[in-house]
Every structure is written in C-alpha cells, then in structure tokens.
UniProtKB/TrEMBL annotation:
Keywords: Cytoplasm, Transferase. Its EC number is 2.8.1.-. This is Sulfurtransferase DsrE. Gene3D superfamilies: DsrEFH-like.
Length: 130
C-alpha cells in the first residue's frame, strides 16, 4: 500500500511521535511512503534550531534521520514555514533574514505537493491538527 502522511503538529506533540511510529511501521511492513507533508505547526519538526531537553525524545532529529535513511520525500509547506520563521537559505536571502533553520533533507513547497501525494497514494494519513 502507498501512504501519503501529513503532520500538522509540532515535534513536542504526541501526534508527532505517533506519525513517526506509523511511518516506521509502514516501511517495516513493506509499504511505501509517497510523501511526508509537514503543515501548520508540523513545520517545526523540520527546523534545525530546536533544542530538546535531555530527558525527552528529540523527534525533530528522529524525523530528519528517518527521512534521510529511507530517502523519503519530506516536504515542508512553504506558507506555514514562512509564517513560523522556518526558513531555508533561499527564503532567508529572499526575505533578508539572517537565520537559516531548514536544510537537507527537507524541501519547501506548496500545498500542491500534498495534492499530488494524495493522488499517488492509496491512503492519506493525517496526524495532529485542529
């Protein structure tokens, strides 16, 4: 089965951990992940500058390792990211900001990427959100 996964909540939220566990289990079960799409507060899972307390799971780092290890398509909604100050090098330059807190393996893109993923997948799994 092909899954598209959308994550709407930040790394410290329980739904972020559930989404990661689901994604890991899907791949372990022989399924495919068409795309991971981080939207709304989910964009915080992709930023480089979060510091997690030592006694907590660093889900942002775990997401990065997971996407990198499995060479997955990890897309961060550009509108949600900009609104929350999550910027790659190109957007930081465009908006004349000194901080860059989004890098490989993440890609900034629009909601059209979520639409395309839904069209290519058998199921859309959503975690977090209102």
């Amino acid at each position: 089965m092909k899954f598209a996964i959308a994550l709407f909540s930040a790394a410290h939220a329980p739904s972020s951990r559930r989404a990661l566990l689901f994604a890991q289990a899907a791949l372990a079960g022989g399924h495919q992940i068409v795309r991971l799409f981080f939207y709304q507060d989910g964009v915080y899972n992709a930023q480089d500058t979060s510091v997690t307390p030592q006694d907590e799971l660093d889900l942002a780092r775990q997401w990065r390792a997971f996407v990198t290890e499995h060479q997955l398509d990890g897309v961060v909604c550009i509108a949600a990211a900009l609104r929350r100050g999550v910027l790659n090098e190109e957007e930081a330059r465009r908006y004349q900001r000194s901080a860059v807190n989004l890098s490989v393996p993440w890609e900034l893109s629009g909601l059209g990427q979520l639409h395309d993923a839904v069209q290519a997948a058998d199921r859309l799994m959503c975690f977090g959100g209102p």
